[in-house]
Task: inverse folding
């Protein structure tokens, strides 16, 4: 794990007081010592951004009240940021990422990539054109045992894929939370995009299954529901999936399931075996070869792939969690961006970090779900 | 559990050498001492039936080679059977049940009730007309903690129902098993009916969710698959559900999921709480009131409903399993049939045993799934 | 599992109204159809015994008010009982078993064998002398996965044994239960013998570890406690163990551990692997070969021993529980006693049922624990 | 969680290339942004220390080849370290801590505190005399749900304490690992002290139970074993415990239990309830009030204590692990040391971090175990 070299300089847009995901990005960036946060536009209120920057130990001049100014100013500094983390509500991802890419700054962007597919494609085009690294924080793909699952699939241990069952279940929106900062923007289509649970968590589930299986969705049939009165977006997502190659699946995402905390869970089955992984016990992976007793693979344990081992910080039984998985995406980003700066090829394992292409596919997934639901569940192909 | 009176006399059709479910019915009937098996038509080969009857300690005269003869002969005996268990392949349920009902004999029938809805309705009509008890062995509804779940729903502990996720997953048909007696008839539409995993296990999952929630399915959208080459019926079932009253759900049944043994699992969520139950740990029920720590309810433990307590044989921590749950259906049947013979009202809890109406609804479910799948997943109402 | 032949005739002493274990013995005896209960002395009050016998469908003449009369009368009948189940409080085991053995009747006896070692040895001598089958219902050794564990040890899969951790934990005596029939005799040294939790459950834990590992205890160091005021016997048992061959262990038994139901659990470790089994999930056995991922072995699953397979009634995933494990001891007893009557060698697997020798060792264990505790934990050898 | 203020300057002694715990300390210190590592004596080889310091981004002048020099030099710098982390083999803890305390530098020290009790007491005396903060990294007490368990005990939710079962089980030393750097010093009494598993992990188990229950050990009876040929220290530890106030317990620590990873587990029972916690699922705590269904408390969930909430970084279901628990000790240390520098009282919750008194008691525990074992398990009081 200890990849060497001086820390890279990181900037952040969003993530001010009361934000959840901004603090996560900062802890994840710090954990491995490969990033120093040196600049930020944490709030559209300059005084708030100033105060917040100071609490993080930033130079006052680098706590900006405006991301456009920040992009321009940082690009001009000799010690300017070497990447920006975009952790705002969804509708701002595209303009902010565009501004920083335009200023030559690589981007680490929260998901979903954008609020519509046209925007997503435009952004992907810009990434292509600039050649700059772009990392999308589908953080669950940073877990070592998720990477192990992917390695087992690629090694053919499941045989031909047949079934994919993926779910992401929470309960924090089971009641109306109007007034809660986290809930408000997620429930506002003008900031979150067309999906509620769909954009917030179903896209994680979609990416997880895509990352592990490699299988592309051919078509889907969706049923969205909004259970809480007055809510303007979905809070429950049911999708049936048909994959290229013939596999079938179901996806369920909900934010109104009492007793569920952050229940992202993947189960996949091929001709020769099955795999089960649950985010709430991320260090474990159950592998059942057909006709044999299931094995409990454990992070740090014997016989794992290079991909899992390289994403591991601690010995088996010393639990790694959400922040370590998230930190892995930042570690991969450091490798990709460091290599880019040095003009060398990155460690191939760093390419496991999700990129702008995953983001485009995620937005295509959202749009296909919305379209299928609007057409009473008709099987709808993914546009991407 | 309070057992009344002398054991009742039971006959059986089917369940000869090599059958799985016949032996289960016999153990379940024996467990509580409320039934004596005294007659049977175990095979269409009279010599086989004779030998098998002898191995069970039956009088030779009551081991029949033919169920028509058995129905007639037993009806004429003063010590004739007081109920018949029908444990044949599905296509014979209707004619056999019809013959015994015609001879005045109550019926305990395996599921699915029949191979088509017309047959099912005709049978239900005959049950109505004769007034005879009829019990369908959706055995999973005999588990105490399934009855506890139902009691909690009825007591309003979940509030208005929102989400139903039910699955029944196995792996024993992941490969072609041609030549295996159990697999062969289940894979032959002329004996099993139009469903494979659909009739064999998805109907159990459907009944379980119906039994616990009480919610009727308004419409469903289905996707069937057959993964094993040469198989003539489905081996994987994906269904999305819309319930009367607005709840939504997913059902998954598969017999080709490596690592799954007999994974029947129900999760339901209402406005105020959630419940989770898994058949492989049947003594436990997880109840999560919204905003409180989840509780692990345990069969035999404190604070359970009368319905759960009455179906319990052992103290908490002394595991009860599949046979005890199945035995509960036989105990209920003994109460219903005993009360019928005595002209009294049965213990109301015995009415929890599934009946012919559940059988009709199960066949309607099968037909709706087949129809929806044939129409590319169009939302299809249940006929029942 | 279906071993053939007519059912054997069983008698029972004890197990009348309100008794727990009598009903368990009756269900266990019935389950496999190898025993018919035909006689009993269920209570020392003849009227109670009569009523109870009638409720079980016995002939009135065979519901005795006195076990001495029963032994004599049944021995004289041509259709007399072929075995007697002794399910009384502990202090009566020896005199009752002695009477029936004296009358030529094989015995199935609850544990612990007797209330002191002299009695136990005398009884073992009588068994030897008569040559009659004698089965002790250490029922947990009837579980298929306990037999699998034993088979793995015998096959050398753990290598040389190093560590044994066994525990049996309940909470039903956490408060004073004076007036509860089950609690009263267990708390009365004149009926239960010198141990409370020690005799009631620690002996099960001791037998389980002995059965699985085969290792004899060389010496032990014990600390008994009585936490509930007024209780005359121990309710918590802590023991350290040294085995012949060098292994070490700990045993914990408690009836005052809130939240514990019937937590019998065994963990053993050798040079080459470890095994873990818990009675509350009896169908599973975790096997961890050193340096490999642990495997989850499951009753009915692939690759198990003959001993496990022979004790299995249902396919994997269809839970078997306490009654099925108990029934296995009755099935073994039927084989041993049937073979004895027929003058043939029994199926060798039936010899897995515990016998009088296990009973003597169990009483020696109790006495060694009491002696060690009285001597402030001094290492004390087992007398047996 | 985000307590404000500029990061403190940290130095480290030990923890160079190939060390395990040094890297852990660095990640833990970084996570919350409250510490900057600015100096270190990472190796007794100056060149190695230099290289390693450079890889961590330290100024060359502050990567020392000798901790005595470091203590002196840092004490003289105006920007000298504000605390030192001592992460060497055990025998060096006392001299290094003594040197830094003598130079006025607060100490964060790995456990066990020292290799004998006299040394431990002398060090505690020096801490008292200097008045400097001293934190001992019994890191498991940093887990939020461990703090929740302690809060529940203190709130009287278990009633009077009766039973303590604690264990810490690993398998990495099941074979001879001579040549492995981690194993070598731990197996060398001149560097590790008199205990093997005893000093390395049993002391963690001891501290965990002491931290949660608050109960002092009155006396213990111990049995040590060394299973691997040639090993000079114990690799398996069995202890029975008697607590002041009457509670009893068992402690088991092993490094030779195949299949165990880092199995630290605590179960405690009082008159009114029980608690169970396992380090491998650190976010969960099972609380069983006597006579009620057990509750699954979850980090970040509803109804937890202030102590648990204050140690929490992420919402429920986003797993926190070993590094987060360890980081909490560093966060507490930052608060204690920052407050000391500022001459104010620290947040009272920061006092939950273990201190030098815990270290003295841990060494007393080690010595009592060794003495009891040497005297054949005689009950031995703790000297502390």
Result:
């Amino acid at each position: 794990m200890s990849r060497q070299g001086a820390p890279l300089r990181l900037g952040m847009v969003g993530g001010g007081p009361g934000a959840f995901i901004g603090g996560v990005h900062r802890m994840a960036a710090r954990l491995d010592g490969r990033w120093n946060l040196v600049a930020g536009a944490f709030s559209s209120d300059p005084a708030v951004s100033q105060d917040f920057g100071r609490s993080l130990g930033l130079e006052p001049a680098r706590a900006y009240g405006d991301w456009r100014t920040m992009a321009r100013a940082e690009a001009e500094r000799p010690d300017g940021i070497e990447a920006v983390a975009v952790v705002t509500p969804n509708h701002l991802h595209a303009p902010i990422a565009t501004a920083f890419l335009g200023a030559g700054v690589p981007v680490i962007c929260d998901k979903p990539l954008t609020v519509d597919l046209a925007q997503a494609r435009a952004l992907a085009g810009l990434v292509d054109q600039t050649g700059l690294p772009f990392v999308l924080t589908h953080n669950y793909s940073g877990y070592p045992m998720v990477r192990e699952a992917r390695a087992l699939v690629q090694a053919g241990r499941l045989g031909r894929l047949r079934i994919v069952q993926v779910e992401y279940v929470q309960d924090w929106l089971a009641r109306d939370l109007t007034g809660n900062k986290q809930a408000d923007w997620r429930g506002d289509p003008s900031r979150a995009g067309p999906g509620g649970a769909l954009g917030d968590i179903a896209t994680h589930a979609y990416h997880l299954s895509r990352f592990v299986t490699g299988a592309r969705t051919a078509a889907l049939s969706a049923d969205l529901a909004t259970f809480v009165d007055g809510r303007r977006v979905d809070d429950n997502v049911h999708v049936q999936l048909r994959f290229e190659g013939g596999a079938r699946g179901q996806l369920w995402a909900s934010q109104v399931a009492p007793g569920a905390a952050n229940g992202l869970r993947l189960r996949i089955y091929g001709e020769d075996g099955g795999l089960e992984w649950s985010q709430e016990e991320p260090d474990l992976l159950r592998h059942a070869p057909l006709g044999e007793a299931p094995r409990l693979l454990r992070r740090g344990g014997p016989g794992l792939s290079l991909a899992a081992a390289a994403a591991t910080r601690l010995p088996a039984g010393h639990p790694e969690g959400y922040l370590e998985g998230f930190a892995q995406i930042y570690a991969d980003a450091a490798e990709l961006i460091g290599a880019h700066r040095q003009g060398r090829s990155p460690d191939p394992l760093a390419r496991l970090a999700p990129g702008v292409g995953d983001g485009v596919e995620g937005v295509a997934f959202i749009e296909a779900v919305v379209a299928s639901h609007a057409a009473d569940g008709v099987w709808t192909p993914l546009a991407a």
Notes: The radius of gyration of chain C is 20 Å. The domain at 141-313+361-381 of chain C is CATH 3.30.360.10 (Dihydrodipicolinate Reductase; domain 2). Chain C has a mean pLDDT of 96. The interface with chain D takes residues 158, 162-163, 165, 167, 171, 174-175, 221, 223, 225, 227, 236, 238, 240, 242, 248-250, 252, 254, 256-260, 267, 269-274, 276, 286-291, 294, 376-379 of chain C (CB under 8 Å).
